[in-house]
């Protein structure tokens, strides 16, 4: 099984960025833990601060991978283009957020991704990514 994790803007600063909200672990550290845990899964990780690059990557992976775990970060709340890309591809997308966006500012309550996503996992810290991977694996064993 091939699962891609795509992170949007400012998530390259995880570990340093607002650690009270996002924790003090870098994503690279966390990604290594996921690779160690899911040895049977081909995991791919990509991060960009640029909207068009994320759209390109969604298009590129979206007909090849079995699942995409997408944290579009701030673009979640602004990007019709990323939302449309998610709807355009064949690969199912699980939207994730580290923080519970519904407990935060009103502008974080709306997502342009959710209507095209298979499901949404919000507020479990970095574990949100792991839960998304588990959702793809569970699907694989039940179908
Ligand atoms: C985030 C929540 C977004 O509102 C924010 O802009 C982010 C990260 C999260 O994972 O909690 O950059 O997607």
TrEMBL record:
<feature type="binding site">
    <location>
        <begin position="98"/>
        <end position="99"/>
    </location>
    <ligand>
        <name>substrate</name>
    </ligand>
</feature>
<dbReference type="GO" id="GO:0003855">
    <property type="term" value="F:3-dehydroquinate dehydratase activity"/>
</dbReference>
<dbReference type="GO" id="GO:0009423">
    <property type="term" value="P:chorismate biosynthetic process"/>
</dbReference>
<comment type="function">
    <text>Catalyzes a trans-dehydration via an enolate intermediate.</text>
</comment>
<dbReference type="Pfam" id="PF01220">
    <property type="entry name" value="DHquinase_II"/>
</dbReference>
<comment type="similarity">
    <text>Belongs to the type-II 3-dehydroquinase family.</text>
</comment>
<feature type="active site" description="Proton donor">
    <location>
        <position position="97"/>
    </location>
</feature>
<dbReference type="GO" id="GO:0019631">
    <property type="term" value="P:quinate catabolic process"/>
</dbReference>
<protein>
    <recommendedName>
        <fullName>3-dehydroquinate dehydratase</fullName>
        <ecNumber>4.2.1.10</ecNumber>
    </recommendedName>
</protein>
<dbReference type="GO" id="GO:0008652">
    <property type="term" value="P:amino acid biosynthetic process"/>
</dbReference>
<feature type="active site" description="Proton acceptor">
    <location>
        <position position="22"/>
    </location>
</feature>
<feature type="site" description="Transition state stabilizer">
    <location>
        <position position="17"/>
    </location>
</feature>
<comment type="subunit">
    <text>Homododecamer.</text>
</comment>
<feature type="binding site">
    <location>
        <position position="71"/>
    </location>
    <ligand>
        <name>substrate</name>
    </ligand>
</feature>
<dbReference type="InterPro" id="IPR018509">
    <property type="entry name" value="DHquinase_II_CS"/>
</dbReference>
<dbReference type="InterPro" id="IPR001874">
    <property type="entry name" value="DHquinase_II"/>
</dbReference>
<feature type="binding site">
    <location>
        <position position="84"/>
    </location>
    <ligand>
        <name>substrate</name>
    </ligand>
</feature>
<comment type="pathway">
    <text>Metabolic intermediate biosynthesis; chorismate biosynthesis; chorismate from D-erythrose 4-phosphate and phosphoenolpyruvate: step 3/7.</text>
</comment>
<keyword id="KW-0456">Lyase</keyword>
<dbReference type="InterPro" id="IPR036441">
    <property type="entry name" value="DHquinase_II_sf"/>
</dbReference>
<feature type="binding site">
    <location>
        <position position="108"/>
    </location>
    <ligand>
        <name>substrate</name>
    </ligand>
</feature>
<feature type="binding site">
    <location>
        <position position="77"/>
    </location>
    <ligand>
        <name>substrate</name>
    </ligand>
</feature>
<keyword id="KW-0028">Amino-acid biosynthesis</keyword>
<keyword id="KW-0057">Aromatic amino acid biosynthesis</keyword>
<dbReference type="GO" id="GO:0009073">
    <property type="term" value="P:aromatic amino acid family biosynthetic process"/>
</dbReference>
């Amino acid at each position: 099984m091939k699962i891609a994790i795509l992170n949007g803007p400012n998530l390259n600063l995880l570990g340093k960025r607002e650690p009270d909200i996002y924790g003090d672990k870098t994503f690279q550290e966390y990604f290594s833990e996921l690779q160690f845990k899911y040895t049977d899964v081909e995991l791919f990780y990509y991060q960009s601060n640029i909207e068009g690059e994320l759209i390109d990557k969604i298009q590129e992976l979206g007909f090849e991978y079995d699942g995409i775990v997408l944290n579009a970060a701030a673009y979640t709340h602004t990007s019709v283009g990323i939302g449309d890309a998610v709807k355009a591809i064949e690969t199912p997308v699980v939207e994730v957020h580290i923080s519970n966006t519904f407990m935060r500012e009103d502008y974080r309550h709306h997502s342009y991704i959710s209507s095209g996503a298979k499901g949404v996992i919000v507020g479990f810290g970095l574990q949100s990514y792991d839960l998304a991977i588990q959702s793809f694996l569970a699907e694989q064993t039940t179908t």
